[in-house]
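Tutorial handout. Part one gives the primary structure; part two gives the three-dimensional structure as tokens.
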Amino acid sequence: MRVFHILNFCIALSLCPCCPSALAETDAEVKEILFLAGKKSHGYGAHEHKAGSLLLARCLNQSGLNVRAQVVTEGRLPEANGLQNPDAIVMYCDGFKRHMAKDHQAEIQSWVDDGVGVACLHFATEVDPEELGQQFLDWIGGYFAIGWSVNPHWDATFDTFPDHPITNGVKPFTIRDEWYYHMRFQPEMKGVTPILSALPPIRTLTDRAKDKNRGSNPTVMAAVSAGQKQHVAWAYERANGGRGFGFTGGHFHQNWQQDDFRRLVLNALIWTAKGEVPVKGVPSRTPSDAEMAQNQDYPKPKSK
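Part two.
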């Protein structure tokens, strides 16, 4: 285990009880996963960085696997004093000009240089190419690029999966999300393995053709029109042995209640930390409606 301090906020045992079997393991066998949850964003039920991170961390801590997950909120990093490397970090935050990595490039790069895994969920995959584009190619193998990638809401169907630990136990599913696609990847996809791929409906481009930044462009229109499936989640293996994971879903908080959607991401976080993903995938119970409502940044709107 790599030990680190948490700044001001971590998961309390009453909120996220660890599995006794995991606690009984020796420190050297435990994988440490650190969630870096961003600030408030869209409103109730969307971009719930804190609530989503706490939910996923709880699932990992209750899985019975040799993993310990902790969460830091408000786009902060743990205090540097006495800090040692986690096995993986997970950024779930707003992106582009508001991306938390802008203020912490040196610290994250130091982790990456030491082989620490990096996972980015939803908006965290979008960065300013001039500031973080090359870093994200190096850290996770790809990113959302303005004028190239698109971010429509659509129902994606995933019915085939690659033979990869991240897909262990994942069954075909269809779910509506703000699935970003046509991402900017490493040249020739070097080190990149597409994990979730689907063909978006052409309306995801024609309905937003006037949005030149995130709506459509001639290259993506040609690709989708030709029937080319688009990659919305991927795994990356860096030259130094570190791992990365990009997942463009996660806009709607409620989607974490879908078992295969959640299982794939939990698998990916264990894999990114260089843990052993169970053959049937990371076990986790379906969160209740009450649990889904916990820790959200905004109150639920009153019914009209």
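Part three, for discussion. Residues 172 and 299 are 33 Å apart (CA to CA). Helices lie at 20-24, 49-61, 105-113, 129-140, 203-206, 218-225, 259-272, 289-292.
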